[in-house]
Write a structure and sequence with these properties.
- It is built from eleven helices and ten strands.
- The protein is of the alpha+beta class and 326 residues long.
- The protein has a domain of 131 residues: Nucleotidyltransferase, domain 5, CATH 3.30.420.
- Strands 6-5-4-7-8 form a five-stranded mixed beta sheet, sandwiched between helices.
- α7 links the parallel β7 and β8.
- It binds zinc ion.
- The site of zinc ion has 8 residues, from loops.
């Protein structure tokens, strides 16, 4: 797929491409689920907007964007497809400023489009299940970056702000915990405060307990690690980052690499990110990592996979606005 592809230039071509991705076996009514071709008619002629279908089962009308993040948007579909392609294929992300210039839409529109696309990139963790499994290795670690919007309150200090400078002043930074299956997928989560309990919560919901867990020697992982088939640690404090054990190497360099791409993107491309939106940026970096070129996923395939994920995640302008406007 090239940027001069007709699907990025022409709204009709874009719609046909999206229809082919979403409905490989013909249109499906989003209102009642009817997929019987003889009971769906295409509304032809100038009186109807292009791509309009009529369902003879429920008597409702629909287009391919109903029930998707593109729904009720006045932005031409070819611009949506260009935006999804750019965001799916740019390793460190694509800023709203750059989308605004490349798409010829206002900055505000570009910002909303980018957030809707990030919402589509979110993996449905409940249906895809936990990472890892028997014989699989999962690396887990936490990272701290950016400035917290609200100071962390310390219960020991009777509700006064937290002042202790931890790992490079982590008390004032945003906390992200990340998991990655060796050779597989990654998931990152924004948590308010890394404690044994919050870390355990993320781990047991996202990492199969029959896996082998690799972490640094942080005490956050000690007790939860006992719930896993094996738990191996490297002691960064004494300069140990990798250790050979038989034919495997214990390290957490894979998750460090995932964090590194994320941080470079957040610093170099996004710069400002409201804390309320951080979960969507994390979903964006996970989405690309989990479909990385090393897994033999092409830019076109990654884009088509994204187009298959736009359904059921309609994020209204109102809902984004309510969460702050950064
Ligand atoms: Zn219907």
């Amino acid at each position: 797929m090239k940027l001069d592809s007709p699907i990025f230039q022409d709204a009709d071509k874009a719609r046909e491409h999206l229809e082919a991705q979403r409905w490989p076996h013909g249109p499906i009514c989003p209102h009642c689920g009817n997929a019987n071709e003889t009971r769906i008619t295409k509304m032809e002629g100038k009186a109807h907007r292009p791509g309009l279908y009529n369902c003879m089962e429920c008597r409702e009308q629909f287009t391919v964007t109903v029930g998707t993040v593109f729904e009720r948007s006045k932005i031409p579909l070819n611009k949506w497809l260009l935006a999804t392609f750019l965001m799916a294929s740019s390793k460190k992300g694509m800023s709203a400023h750059q989308l605004h210039r490349m798409l010829g839409v206002t900055y505000k529109t570009a910002w909303f489009m980018a957030h809707r696309i990030r919402e589509a990139m979110k993996e449905d963790v409940a249906s895809s299940g936990p990472l890892g499994g028997e014989g699989k290795i999962i690396e887990a670690d936490e990272t701290y970056f950016g400035k917290r919007e609200t100071p962390r309150v310390s219960p020991q200090r009777k509700g006064r702000p937290f002042i202790k400078k931890g790992k490079s002043g982590s008390g004032h930074k945003r906390t992200v915990i990340g998991l990655v299956e060796r050779g597989g997928k990654a998931r990152m989560f924004h948590i308010n405060h890394a404690t044994k309990a919050t870390v355990r919560d993320v781990l047991v919901r996202n990492a199969d307990r029959t896996s082998t867990l690799y972490t640094d020697s942080s005490r956050l992982y000690t007790t939860t690690g006992e719930e896993y088939a094996k738990h191996r640690t490297t002691n960064h404090a004494i300069g140990e980052y990798a250790r050979r054990e038989g034919d495997v190497v214990v390290h957490s360099n894979t998750i460090e690499g995932v964090f590194s791409v994320f941080k470079r993107g957040m610093i170099g491309v996004y710069q400002h990110c409201g804390e309320a939106h951080l979960h969507r940026y994390l979903a964006e970096f996970d989405f690309r990592y989990n479909r990385r070129a090393a897994l033999k996923v092409s830019d076109t395939e990654r884009h088509d996979q994204l187009l298959a994920m736009i359904e059921g995640k309609r994020l209204t302008y109102r809902r984004i606005g309510e969460a702050g406007n950064a």
